[in-house]
Every structure is written in structure tokens, then in C-alpha cells.
Write a structure and sequence with these properties.
With 199 residues, this protein is mainly β. It has one domain: Galactose-binding domain-like (Jelly Rolls, Sandwich), CATH 2.60.120. Helix content is 12%, strand content 43%. The longest helix is centred in the last third of the chain and has 23 residues.
Length: 199
């Protein structure tokens, strides 16, 4: 099983980047294994034991050329810390599949967003390396600080873990009614300020 965890961070970060894992080390093999602490995939840090950075080994998710097996030579994970606005809502989208080479056939992801868990699963029993059957998953969260860490952790033991790709994080725009309300309140505040100045 894999876990997706979001938590607030006080340190400096940057905008979310490289969600398709396309910017990383060059290699000619179908995949390479990266170990704990590795930062060679731009924006991301490997956690746990290790991950497999997939090139041509299996079908890439839509719109991407690279992906991740969260079980490398052991139980691994990957994380990124990025800028957020406290109180703003964000949508996270990611493609989920599973390594079809071995058990368990069902790969599970548990999403924890500020203490609210959501479970996702992928049945890889009908998948092949040439047809991974990627599915798009999504969830939303409200940021509680100036930066947020998004972490995907495998909880499978073995070498055939959940497959991850095409991660996207975007801020959800405020509804038009909220914008109008905010503009109206700002206008009232300025009007009151001017009246005080005149008095």
C-alpha cells in the first residue's frame, strides 16, 4: 500500500514543479533505482528505501515519458515541498497504476490531507507493461501554511509497487461570488476610510 501525505512546512520552498518526473538523471536502461535522500529528479526527494525511476520499461502515463515505481529494491517513497497560500484550496491530480510483474495484484494508496484520509486502489491483474491502464485520481486540500509537503509512500513489501505519474497541483480559484463579496467589502472599507479623512 502507498500513502500520500500532506503537511505544512515553515521553511522556504518553491512553486510545484516537475510533476511528470520528466526532468531527472539521464539513463539508457529501461529504469534505474534511486535510494533514500536522492534529489536527482528535479524538485523531488526519495524517501524510504528506494524507488525505480521508469523510462521505457513500461507504458508511460498520458502526457509523460517517465514515471515511478514506489517499490525499488525495498519500500520507498517520494516527496516535494512547494509554496502554498495559507487558507487557499488546491487540487492534486495524479495517475495511478501498478507494477504488473508481481504481487500484490491490487496496489493501494491512502491519501491523508490534513488528517482526512482517502483510499485509492488499482487492480493490476489485467495490466501489462505495454498497457498499464493508468487511471487519473484527484483530491483537494486547504493549505495551512506558506508551504506544503506532498509525499507518496509505499507500504508494500517487495519489488512490485504502486506506479505513480503525472502529478499536478493547482490552486482552485475563488468562486465569482466570493470575489464580488471581497471587492464589495474592500470598497466599503475604502469609503469608510475616506469619510474619516473628510471628518
Amino acid at each position: 500500500m502507498a500513502a500520500v501525505t500532506l503537511c505544512s512546512q515553515a521553511g522556504r520552498a518553491a512553486s510545484f514543479q516537475n510533476g511528470d518526473f520528466g526532468i531527472g538523471p539521464s539513463f539508457t536502461d529501461p529504469f534505474i533505482t534511486l535510494y533514500n535522500g536522492d534529489t536527482s529528479i528535479t524538485g523531488w526527494t526519495v524517501t524510504g528505501h528506494s524507488i525505480d525511476y521508469i523510462g521505457t520499461y513500461w507504458q508511460a502515463p498520458p502526457g509523460a515519458t517517465r514515471s515511478i515505481d514506489l517499490d525499488g529494491l525495498g519500500q520507498g517513497g517520494i516527496q516535494q515541498t512547494f509554496d502554498t497560500i495559507s487558507g487557499a484550496q488546491y487540487q492534486v491530480r495524479f495517475y495511478l497504476a501498478g507494477n504488473p510483474d508481481g504481487a500484490p495484484s491490487t496496489k493501494n494508496i491512502l491519501v491523508v490531507s490534513w488528517g482526512t484520509p482517502a483510499a485509492y486502489s488499482f487492480d493490476a491483474s489485467g495490466a501489462t507493461l505495454g498497457n498499464m491502464g493508468w487511471i487519473l485520481e484527484s483530491f483537494t486540500f486547504t493549505a495551512e501554511g506558506p508551504s506544503t509537503t506532498l509525499q507518496f509512500n509505499s507500504q508494500d513489501s517487495g519489488y512490485y509497487g504502486p506506479a505513480l505519474g503525472g502529478v499536478n497541483v493547482s490552486q482552485i480559484p475563488l468562486p465569482a461570488t466570493a470575489l464580488l463579496l471581497g471587492t464589495g467589502l474592500l470598497g466599503l472599507g475604502l469609503l469608510g476610510f475616506r469619510r474619516k479623512k473628510q471628518d
